[in-house]
From TrEMBL:
GO CC terms: cytosol
Any one GO molecular-function label of the UniProt entry: pyridoxal phosphate binding
Pfam families given in the database record: Aminotran_3
Protein name per its UniProtKB record: 4-aminobutyrate---pyruvate transaminase
Key word Cell cycle present: no
Amino acid sequence: MDGMIENSIAARDIRYLVHGSVDLARQRQNPPTMINGGKGIFIFDENGTPYLEAAAGMWCTALGFSEEELIEAATEQMRKLPYYHTLAYKSVTPAAELAEKLAALVPIENAHLYFALSGSEANDAFIKFAWYVNNALGRPEKKKIIARKNGYHGATLGSASLSGISANHKLFDLPIANILHVSDPHYYRNGLPGESEAEFVDRLVGEVEALILAEGPDTVAAFVAEPVTGAGGVVIPPAGYYTKLQAVLDRYDVIFHADEVINGFLRTGKMWGSEAMGIRPTTMSMAKAITSAYMPLSALALPSWFYDAMERGSTEVGVFGHAATYAGHPVSCAVALKMLEIVERRNLKAHVETVGARFKERILAFKDHPLVGDVRVIGLMGAIEFVTDKANKTSFVPTGSFAKRLRDHAEERQKLIVRAVPAGDSCAFSPPLVITIEEVDEMFDRFAKALDEVTAEVGA
Ligand code: PMP
């Protein structure tokens, strides 16, 4: 706690509050930056210093940090009805309206919507529901779920098991049984020397098919993936990957569950990552931008055959035995309805297309930097991957150390918040969707300065 005032809020924070995604021991010397305010794409620390938030918090505050219409929607709903549940033959209007609205938006016919509070909880519910449905359909052995290395799906027992990041498993006794992982479709990192993109696609899809056959198609229920991987480094699979993958999944009657928690609501430039990537998802989870993160909310979209099987199961048991106090929370749902109204009224899609073009141009320009190995970009989501040697794609040691150093430097010196992703050595950008062209320039100008300064420090 060097230099920290003993009784400061940051000192009290680490004395009492348990944080995630930190080295807990290092945090004693490195207390958190306390964030006390926000306006547009900027946040303010306790001294009032503004930071340009290039990560939209955790890839989530789509409308920025001061959208009055969302605040009003929450306030109005709180005055009318701050809480009621959607269990045991009761419901609330905002939840019913939001389910109807989302059913019209998702690329799933006759969709039914389940609401929860976080991306983790939606993905966890997916696992439970898929197991329930296969029991109800009389195929109780069809339970295994295939996910991908470096995918991220959440922190709860089931969703953390789906995640393919080792730090989410080690010491936690995860993954749980029946979760399998296949290779990450990150061509730059995982393509073999001399292997073309088409060959890479065939190899990875072949791996999925071989796994399904080895396990037995009758035991495999679902394949789970983020259309574009977020935390794993903004990985955009090569052309043809999803088409070929879906053909395999269809052949063995395996559900495609698209995790749209980051991708959904225009992050990729399309409403859904599935749309951007040409996926026909069977089921989908979404969260984050659904309320611009102003209230906790997630959703799981299910096709009618799946819902019908849930109904059949509940008839057998006498009740659908899955309940959550806050499922369909009226304030969260009212904020989500307002968010979706704003997306349409302000034509946010056209805005993302316009600023996305500048975003792409600016981020791709970093390809010329001597320490940049790869740049990946789609919509308003991008990553820059660092290497010590471009020709051999050699990573810094330990892997990830350069991106973390750059992230810390950018925050301290340039007042710019970027994410150092937990997989690989990349800095990720996912600014609020309302960012302007001038702000895109400002963001990358600050980043370029930080990169030059850190490059000079490491003597490259
Ligand atoms: N899925 C994806 C793709 C995510 O990025 C995240 C969170 N970053 C989650 C699921 C989990 O969401 P939450 O943190 O809201 O539980």
